[in-house]
Design goal:
Distance between the termini: 65 Å
CATH class: Alpha Beta
CATH architecture: 2-Layer Sandwich
Number of domains: 1
Strand content: 15-25%
Number of helices: 7
Number of strands: 8
Helix content: 40-55%
Oligomer: single chain
Largest sheet: 6 strands, mixed
């Protein structure tokens, strides 16, 4: 029986080691933003220190399981999973606003229409207060009305696989799209150099 004790201790230690990532994952949070083409949002938000992962998709509509071809009432959105010990929700919101034109309620850059409008989807009063505070700061900085909506998060559906990580999988096509759309030029004119 004594020979099994070291093995039991090893099994316990192994179980603890394997549980650490699961415990850390429980500390992660998510945020959902809309601000034009979800490819560009993913491209701009993913490199932020503290962002663990991103998923492009659809948020805000009522249809179950929307698709790219059929998502009426939905915004193209980005779900950001982040480590709040490295980046806070208010910091993410501030960064998001500076990757969009929050003054344009009709779309974003060359992408026009309801799917491309800017919005911050909030989960609870704390996120709503942070989003509204960031919008007030943006209004003061830009001295322009802010069109970005603050909406209650009611759903998020991941987009099709071919949309996920589009900029990484198709760098040349994405670069042409981004340049042709004028995003960087508009952002620089609005917010100044990064």
């Amino acid at each position: 029986m004594k020979k099994l004790a070291p093995l039991a201790g090893l099994a316990f230690a192994l179980a603890v080691i394997l549980a650490v990532p699961a415990l850390a994952a429980g500390k992660l949070k998510t945020a959902v933003f809309a601000g034009g083409c979800f490819w560009s949002m993913q491209h701009d938000m993913e490199p932020i220190p503290g962002v663990v992962s991103t998923v492009v998709g659809y948020s805000g509509g009522d249809l179950k399981n929307p698709t790219y071809e059929n998502h009426p009432g939905f915004y193209e959105a980005l779900k950001v999973t982040y480590d709040p010990s490295k980046v806070t929700y208010p910091q993410l919101v501030a960064r998001y606003l500076r990757t969009t034109d929050p003054t344009d309620g009709g779309g974003a850059f060359c992408d026009r229409g309801p799917s491309y409008r800017p919005a911050i989807f909030v989960d609870g009063a704390q996120e709503r207060a942070a989003a509204e505070a960031a919008i007030k700061v943006a209004h003061n900085e830009l001295d322009k009305p802010i069109a970005t909506k603050v909406l209650a998060l009611k759903n998020f559906y991941p987009a099709e696989d071919y949309h996920q990580e589009y900029a990484k999988k198709n760098p040349a096509a994405y670069a042409r799209y981004r340049q042709g759309c004028g995003k960087d030029r508009v952002i620089k004119a609005l917010w100044g150099p990064r």
